[in-house]
Amino acid sequence: MVAEFSLARVVEHPARLDWDRLQEFQREHLARLFGTHSGQTQIVQNLRELLVQQYGERFSGFSVLPDEYILKVLEMRMGHFTLLSDLVSADFQYLWGQPNITVQKLVMITSHASPVLRTVHEALQDMSTDQFTTEGLGSKLRYVSKTHQAVKYSTLMKMLRFVLSGRQVGPSVAEMMTTLGQTETLKRLNNALSLLDSHSKTKDTERRL
Question: Can you tell me the distance from the alpha carbon of 188 to that of 207, in angstroms, rounded to the nearest whole number?
Answer without folding.
Answer: 29
